[in-house]
Predict the structure.
Amino acid sequence: MFFKKKIYLSLLLGFFISSLISIYYVSKYDVYEVSSDNLENHQMIKGPPGIYWQQAHKLKEDLKQNKNYFKTGDEYRNPYLPSKIIFIFSSLVDLELIDEFNNIKIDKKKVFILIIQTIIYYLSILFFYKEIKKEYDERSSLFIVTFLALEPTLLLFHSSFWSESIFFSIQIIFFTLLIKNSKNFTINFIAGFVLGLLFLQRSVAMLYIFPVIFYYILIFKKNFIKPSIFLICGYLFVLIFIGYHNHSRSGIFYISPTQSKDGFYKYMLPSVISKKDNISILQAKDLLKSKEKVWIEENNIDLKKEKDLLFYYNFLQKESFRIIVENPIISATHVLKKTIHFVVLDPLRHVHFYYKYEYKGKPETRYYQSETHMNMIPFRIIYTLLVYSISFCGLIYLYKNNKKNHLLFVVLSLLYFTAVCSWIGNTRYFTPCLIYLSLLFGNGLNLIGNYIKKL
């Protein structure tokens, strides 16, 4: 009972702190800034969140005009779910998203969107706790829940309009369903459906089903087929829904957002070509643009037509893979450097400093060129090593205490998200890994505590 009270206290404390931070950020940053490049941006809602906001507004306007839902939207460029969630949440609190000048509307009521997503997150942890308390002792459960509730990298995302907070919530729900290790049809179908939602929230989860099925093969052995089929059915239900929406709107059935096809081309290829040809990044980008232009002309591509646009993105994807494969050493070196940056935790970067510094503009006005960024590096490294050291102890704890199935799922998940995201080098993409590390961290802290007691 003592530990149970502490667990609920951790959840309430996390929710309270997160809500206060949200109120503070909206009161301070629900304003417009004029960047050093003379562009005007909303300080909280810029970059990808700004795109989600505009898409949610367009959906709202389309439905007001009695447009069929499956006819709404434009090119499926960005993840499907974030804009729909903003639409739903804004409708619940009666919030207008865009003003008459087509700008993000200044309205303090947007704090309620942040509070709603925070409530969902802490309820998902509660759902997770109900399962892990069956598997772990009270002290480990307390440490796991406290990590999820209060770890600053996770905590701050609930006070932002990035897609992370809801993504974490869906992850935790999926994690809870998976560690049940059930062969039940309903549980696995729901797990597949939740996995589909995870993909809709962030496209990096699209191939996550493969390590999950591999996990099923290892834990269920020759009995893996039925639960895997149930899981796939739930997942396919979501994919078919997306494909149907795209087909109804554009006449083309496709399920993957187009941004998932040109990622390597935009963020990796310029660096590879720069090293290969000994030219600047800017020159490499110009070279790629020239080749694109030639290909577009030779193939009579009209980028205003969605069918041609998809053909174009497929070309970029194939060209990316070709150049990467032809330059394995340069490509591997690039990925290794980016991965080292990727795994260093950065709790304040993608929320606090995202609000405080310019999103775009002159290099010297952005966070990565600032003195603050350089001063933060030692603290980030120390914090990262602390979290990883405790988590490594947790790995030992799980292995020794016959929790190898849970350990297997955590390791497979960490490997998957590292493999699909690390090449970008952006620390924001590492944050989903913290959900899985919570299990290692909580048990590691428990192991250390037990060891200290024996001294």
Notes: The radius of gyration is 23 Å.
